Amino acid sequence: MAPNETSRLDKPRSSEDLLSPGMVVHLTEDGAPIAGGPDILQMLTAEEFAALAAAGRETTYATDQHLFKQGDPHDGIHFIKSGRVRSYYVSPGGREITLAYWPKGHFVGAPQILGGGEHMWTSIAVEPTVGLWLPGAKLRELINGTPNLANAVIEGLVYKSMCYTALLQIMGTQSKTSRLGHLLLTVASAAENNRAVVRQHFTQEELANMVGSTRQSISSSLDKFENQGLIERNGDRIVITDVNGLRGLCD
């Protein structure tokens, strides 16, 4: 698959980024750190994983390379063995919203995991990624004969539905400024002395795509947070200097 020539968001990260390899990144309302969710591949026995690998095809993706694009025919499911994948939707008017960043152990290609129809959004590697592609028909065969795989896939789908439900709820009930505050709290480290470090350096455009805003609005909100003594910035690096104050602003 050809690299995405137009993406300026999914660039390699610096060595200072502190996100754990299994951490899912998406918008949520409570501002609590996001659990990694089920690692589907770890839920399989060695024999079950061997059968899965034999039925599929290992794939590799460079940074900015698409796994699939919105509107492409749905041809199967992609398990993530290593790396990180960003899923996003583009509206008919060209507005882009990030659905989530998915780490190893998860899969992309929902909701039509058994194939058919068209992809409803795009998934792209944000760092070098190794995947396991499995056609829908093969996945159906394995699920029919492997209850453990069926349970793992169901848990993965449940987790995705929870992520997207949280995204829908906060997009419909919170202001853009509050959504940004929730996102910073979600991806921050555990608070110490009411301070916390945002564990990945996001550009303003990346933040805008995650909260359904514009880069200009993000810039204005960050300035507001900084002027109120809630955060400190050094380039794209953000430290929350008043965790309680930021949480109170979002509530």
Outline the structure in words.
- This protein is α+β, with helices and mostly antiparallel strands and 251 residues long.
- It has two domains: 41-173, Jelly Rolls, CATH 2.60.120; 176-250, Arc Repressor Mutant, subunit A (Orthogonal Bundle).
- The protein is 35% helix and 20% strand.
- It contains seven helices and eleven strands.
- A four-stranded antiparallel beta sheet has the order 1-8-3-6.
- Helix 2 crosses helix 3 and helix 4 (176-186) packs antiparallel against helix 7.
- The chain is elongated and about 60 Å long.
Q: Give the helices and strands as they follow along the chain.
A: HEEEEEEEEHHHEHHEEH
Q: Write down the Rg.
A: 19 Å
CATH topology of the largest domain: Jelly Rolls
From the coordinates shown, what is the CATH architecture of the largest domain?
Sandwich
* Mean of all residue-level pLDDT scores: 86
Q: Which regions contain 5 or more consecutive residues with pLDDT less than 50? A: 1-17
Please report which band the strand proportion falls in: under 5%, 5-15%, 15-25%, 25-35%, 35-45% or over 45%: 15-25%
End-to-end separation: 44 Å
> How many domains, as an integer?
2
Q: Roughly how much helix do the residues carry, as a percent range?
A: 25-40%
> Biggest β-sheet, characterized?
4 strands, antiparallel
Q: Strand tally, please?
A: 11
CATH C-level label of the largest domain: Mainly Beta
Can you identify the CATH superfamily of the largest domain? Jelly Rolls
Helix count, DSSP H or I runs of 4 or more residues: 7
Structural class: alpha+beta
Biggest sheet, spatial arrangement of strands: 1-8-3-6
The general outline is: elongated
